[in-house]
Amino acid sequence: MNSFLRVLGQFAFVIILDVLVVGLIYYEAERSKVAQANARAEAAKPVTMFDPRTGLELNHRTRLIMGDGYPVVERECAQCHPTQIIRSYRANRAEWLDAIRWMQAEKGLKKFDSKTEETILTYLENYYGR
């Protein structure tokens, strides 16, 4: 009977040890899944960028400065061409107006009402001027 109890005790010890190891493996796997999900969620968040010259926020999609007049420029300009063109072209007010007139004459850009044109020119001059 003593040997039976000893074998039964050893068997119980092995079973308990196995349950503990499997439980620890499961716990670590779940913890790893949660950490990976959190890392993916964090990586998916857009990084807020700021223009170093003005300190204003840049739109994460267009990368244009979100200053006065930005919604009008996004609506009227960013729908037709990449915003990289706006960001890389530095011009004074007269040169921006010439660029708009050229697009209207050569590319079929619609004529803007005076308020819209003024808003666009002021935005471009203030944030992407020389």
Q: Going across the biggest sheet, name each strand in turn.
A: 1-2
In DSSP terms, counting alpha (H) and pi (I) runs of 4 or more, how many helices?
5
Assign the CATH architecture of the largest domain: Orthogonal Bundle
Major sheet: 2 strands, antiparallel
**Span between N and C termini?**
98 Å
Number of domains: 2
CATH class of the largest domain: Mainly Alpha
Tell me the CATH topology of the largest domain.
Cytochrome Bc1 Complex, Chain D, domain 2
Please state the structural category: mainly alpha
- DSSP, total strands: 2
The percentage of residues in β strands lies in: under 5%
Oligomer: single chain
Report the uncertain regions: none
Q: pLDDT average, as an integer?
A: 93
Order of helices and strands: HEEHHHH
Outline: rod-shaped
Helix content class? 55-70%
Over all CA atoms, what is the radius of gyration?
32 Å
Can you tell me about this structure?
There is one protein chain. This protein has 130 residues and is mostly helical. Helices cover 65% and strands 3% of the residues. A two-stranded antiparallel ribbon has the order 1-2. The model has no long low-confidence stretch (mean pLDDT 93).
